[in-house]
């Protein structure tokens, strides 16, 4: 069975963009792969975090993974900092990567620009993609389902794996990236040229998975739309409506074509009001499941078992990498 790996940061509560771009794909793929899902808390501390909030978000993220429909009997769910192999391999990957290639990462440039005004930029923010490459490579991962914003990091992961294999020994699998057909980049509700992000200063731009469902419906109703009145999927000329159609098709079993037909004679108001109801209902049901997991007491056991299982697999690869690089004694 092939191996799948993906991760989400507990730097805030995930948005419906994260759900559509990541979690939904995870659920669709869980039966076909030996799947590892990680709460990447070590990535979160590359920018300042409140200690208590980070702990709370980490736990909520575990519940959100499961509420999305992942079955803990089939998959491995764990917290990055509880599996030491990640940090060990990250150091090795830092010594394989070059400063120049890290400085070219657009996410680094964006975050560094924002951070600069506040507290300065941590070394971790620059070397973040080395940790991400380590996350993926220590499981011998074949496929990484992610949203489109992670494409550049995945390209670098492939480059680092190939460089490691040719410089040392052929031990790493070069992974493939997988983006969803629709919804690989859900856009902000108040500016459809910008990615929807949980760290947006404007609350109207995103819907968090734990937002009040009625307030979320309101955000949809007041989403920025385009000039004209046709409900057509046209990313170039109608980015606002295209984004809302993508959200609609992702949360229901209706295709974009079906939605275009259904709303052929409707105006934006009716369309947005209906989508608001879809989102509201989705969040009500989703949050019931999240609360169930948070209250069930099973979460800690699932995460404990996940860390043991993940370590068992990752430690073997880390040992191979260390041997290839000449670290430690020959055993
Ligand atoms: P993160 O936590 O920012 O996002 C988690 C996942 O959600 C996707 N995503 C989106 N998809 C569609 N539309 C959006 N607006 C949107 N925003 C985010 C992301 O592409 C991602 O799939 N560096 C990663 C976490 C990570 C990781 C890994 C992922 C660390 N190690 C190894 C895969 C494999 C990140 O910051 O994702």
TrEMBL record:
Reaction catalyzed: tRNA(Ile) + L-isoleucine + ATP = L-isoleucyl-tRNA(Ile) + AMP + diphosphate; tRNA(Trp) + L-tryptophan + ATP = L-tryptophyl-tRNA(Trp) + AMP + diphosphate + H(+)
Signal sequence, start to end: none
Domain of life: Bacteria
Subcellular location per the Swiss-Prot or TrEMBL entry: Cytoplasm
Keywords, in A-Z order: Aminoacyl-tRNA synthetase, ATP-binding, Cytoplasm, Ligase, Nucleotide-binding, Protein biosynthesis
Pfam families: tRNA-synt_1b
MF term (GO), any: ligase activity
UniProt short sequence motif 'HIGH' region, positions renumbered to this chain: 10-18
Motif ('KMSKS' region): 195-199
Subunit structure: Homodimer.
Function summary: Catalyzes the attachment of tryptophan to tRNA(Trp).
Family recorded in the similarity comment: Belongs to the class-I aminoacyl-tRNA synthetase family.
Protein name: Tryptophan--tRNA ligase
The organism of origin for this protein: Salinicoccus jeotgali
